[in-house]
Write a structure and sequence with these properties.
The chain is an alpha+beta fold and 191 residues long. The protein has helices spanning 5-10, 28-53, 95-102, 129-151, 164-168, 173-187; strands at 67-71, 80-84, 87-93, 108-110, 125-127, 158-159, 162-163. It is 43% helix and 14% strand. The strands form three sheets. The chain has a three-stranded mixed sheet with strand order 1-3-2, with helices on one face. Strands 4-5 form a two-stranded antiparallel sheet. It binds zinc ion.
């Protein structure tokens, strides 16, 4: 039987399925590798949840179809998600998180855009590195989902009550709706 939203909320999905385990005082390369492994697993977990909670989840945004790039250099400070050449992609900038992991930082902050930073559901996140990375992944995955859905919309069609113009906006209401579901079911309750 398919789990209900409440099952997902109350069940195993409350726990992040994986933790970053690493020896003390890791090198930059070791920390980067551990974070990449975590992000891959976390993306898979979030896509499973997203398929359950987002009606009409676009199949193009499955884990195997998603082009994932990890940047570890300080120069690439901006994470992104969306659609390029007709394919969904996610690019994660990991430098800050590698630094945090190397410093043994246990309490981190994932900043959100000023417009939503104080929102109870989709605002700034404080917690473990895993929880912050989970929020980062949810943010960028939501962009990939948003653009995959938009690609199938006509100018007059509505999805989740939003028109194509709303789906074009980077952090507009259509994106916020998708991100809100991911944050609620995959991130906010996670330890
Ligand atoms: Zn964004």
């Amino acid at each position: 039987m398919k789990p209900t939203l409440r099952d997902i909320q109350m069940g195993n999905n409350e726990q992040l399925s994986n933790k970053i385990t690493i020896k003390k005082a890791p090198t930059f390369e070791e920390a980067a590798e551990a974070i990449k492994v975590f992000c891959n697993e976390e993306l898979k977990r979030q896509i499973v949840i997203a398929k359950r909670v987002i009606k009409g989840y676009p199949p193009q945004t499955s884990f195997s179809n998603l082009k994932i790039t990890y940047h570890t250099s300080k120069r690439f400070y901006k994470s992104r998600g969306g659609r390029r050449g007709g394919k969904p992609f996610i690019t994660l900038s990991l430098y800050k998180w590698i630094q945090n992991l190397m410093c043994g930082e246990s309490h981190c902050t994932f900043d959100e855009y000023a417009l939503i930073e104080n929102d109870r559901q989709i605002g700034e996140v404080n917690g473990s590195i895993e929880k912050c990375l989970s929020a980062l992944i949810a943010h960028e995955l939501s962009h990939a989902i948003q653009h995959a859905l938009k690609a199938n919309m006509s100018d007059s069609s509505m999805v989740f009550g939003y028109n194509k113009t709303q789906f074009k906006k980077p952090h507009g209401y259509a994106w916020r709706y998708i991100y809100g579901l991911l944050r609620k079911y995959a991130v906010n309750e996670a330890k």
